[in-house]
Write a structure and sequence with these properties.
By secondary structure, the protein is of the alpha/beta class. The chain contains 16 helices and 15 strands. The chain has 2 domains: 201 residues, P-loop containing nucleotide triphosphate hydrolases (Rossmann fold, 3-Layer(aba) Sandwich); 160 residues, Rossmann fold (3-Layer(aba) Sandwich), CATH 3.40.50. Helices cover 38% and strands 16% of the residues. Helix 2 packs parallel to helix 3. The protein is globular, with a radius of gyration of 23 Å. Bound molecules: adenosine monophosphate (AMP).
């Protein structure tokens, strides 16, 4: 099926061609006709499936030509995603006279005010900064005809749903709404019922499956040897570009220092860095100045970084969905990529949750020649390797460092 059969206007077909897209992706095939027909759409598709064009193309097509606005609003959870989506939509709209702008926090208001003043058709925004613009009177939403709530589950995780609700309330009721979310927890379900009208769901493939072209491997290791194992892995793996995910900003900083010390071209991306530093890190990584990007989940989610040959989970993600999101960076657009995960004994429960979530077992790999301190790590069935939390009394629960189980017996 060709793009030309989908009912998009000619300038958009020219835009698609200029982007080098030959055929629509499955989510584009299914979502574009629905949006063009005026339906509200819920899209659940893994990252890298082409969902930006899936909502961007029909909205641009229906907007037609420049008019007072903004008439389309796309909400994104992070600045990086907002910037990325704006670039993609602007590229698709290049043969139209539609204007696209982005507003997000962490930078001055000057350029954003100016863009809003000159007139915008499509506005891409993070919720907090857009609310600021509304209260400063630099933007209004009373002409919105198309609303897109992108990465809704991540907006929920980041505590943005109240802001999103406030923004939806400022849009006209008579509008078209699309929502994209990898998972639909109850709060998102409530949002859907409140903000959408008879939505059609477009689900692509198995919702939970990571890209099929990714090879997965788990590297069991003692916490104290993680850093050494990462260095050894990077020496042996023939990588072009690699993203290393860490649980916290501190760990990301520590890992990047260690890699830099060992002469890797490395940069770091997390929310403690200024907007300028984050942009420089991303640009440098995309341009190949840096081969390794060390990042936390929030900073890197959904970013369209192409040609990542490897993803390394320095820390096992706490939520199975994050595993899928993280490795969504590799194996995009049918390239093959590797996802390597370092695992300590205490991670066993999270690893099993991930394996259940993606519906397959991940191979445990031993790095030949690495001076392992504990080889028992490779045999999860050995009693010595049962993680601490599984050894506690039945019913006992650790929460926030406190022990809520039955009173401990003295020995
Ligand atoms: P997204 O899921 O929107 O982040 O898109 C992921 C990547 O796929 C981006 O680099 C897009 O430019 C690319 N892409 C989107 N649609 C197509 C298509 N029909 N053919 C080839 N690449 C595409």
């Amino acid at each position: 099926m060709a793009f030309s059969k989908l009912g998009l206007g000619k300038p958009l077909l020219d835009g698609v061609r200029a982007m080098g897209y030959v055929e629509p992706t499955p989510i584009q095939l299914r979502a574009i006709p629905l949006v063009l027909a005026g339906q509200d759409v819920i899209g659940s598709a893994q990252t890298g499936t082409g969902k930006t064009a899936a909502f961007g193309l029909p909205i641009l097509s229906l907007l037609g030509a420049h008019a007072p606005g903004p008439r389309a609003l796309i909400l994104e959870p992070t600045r990086e995603l907002a910037a990325q989506v704006e670039t993609a939509v602007r590229d698709l709209a290049r043969f139209t006279n539609l204007r696209v702008a982005v507003v997000y926090g962490g930078v001055g208001y000057g350029l954003q005010d100016q863009a809003l003043r000159t007139g915008v058709d499509v506005l891409v925004a993070t919720p907090g900064r857009l609310l600021d613009h509304l209260s400063r009177g630099t933007c209004r939403l009373d002409k919105i005809k198309f609303l897109v709530l992108d990465e809704a589950d991540r907006m929920l995780d980041m505590g943005f749903l109240p802001d999103v609700r406030r923004l939806v309330e400022r849009c006209p009721r008579e509008r078209h709404t699309s929502l994209f979310s990898a998972t639909i927890p109850p709060q998102i379900e409530t949002l859907i019922q409140w903000a959408m009208h008879a939505p059609q769901t477009v689900e692509i493939g198995v919702r939970r499956a990571p890209a099929e072209t990714v090879r997965h491997a788990l590297y069991p290791v003692a916490e104290a040897q993680k850093s050494a194992l990462l260095l050894d892995l990077l020496q042996r793996v023939n990588y072009d570009s690699v993203i290393v995910f860490c649980r916290t900003k501190n760990r990301a900083d520590r890992v990047s220092h260690s890699l830099r010390h060992h002469n890797h071209a490395v940069t770091v991306l997390h929310s403690n860095r200024t907007q300028r530093e984050r942009e420089q890190a991303l640009r440098g990584f995309r341009d190949g100045k840096y081969e390794v990007l060390v990042a936390t989940d929030i900073a890197a989610r959904g970013l369209d970084i192409l040609d990542v040959s490897h993803v390394v989970n320095y820390d096992v993600p706490q939520h199975p969905e994050d595993y899928v999101h993280r490795i969504g960076r590799t194996g995009r657009a049918q390239a093959t990529g590797d996802a390597l995960t370092l695992m300590v004994a205490e991670d066993a429960q999270h690893v099993h949750a991930i394996e259940r979530f993606i519906g397959r077992k991940i191979e445990r790999v031993r790095l030949e020649g690495f001076p392992y301190q504990y080889t028992a790590l490779f045999d999860e069935s050995k009693p010595g390797q049962v993680p601490l939390h599984q050894r506690r009394a039945r019913g006992a629960r650790i929460s926030g460092g406190y022990y809520y189980g039955p009173a401990r017996r003295r020995r």
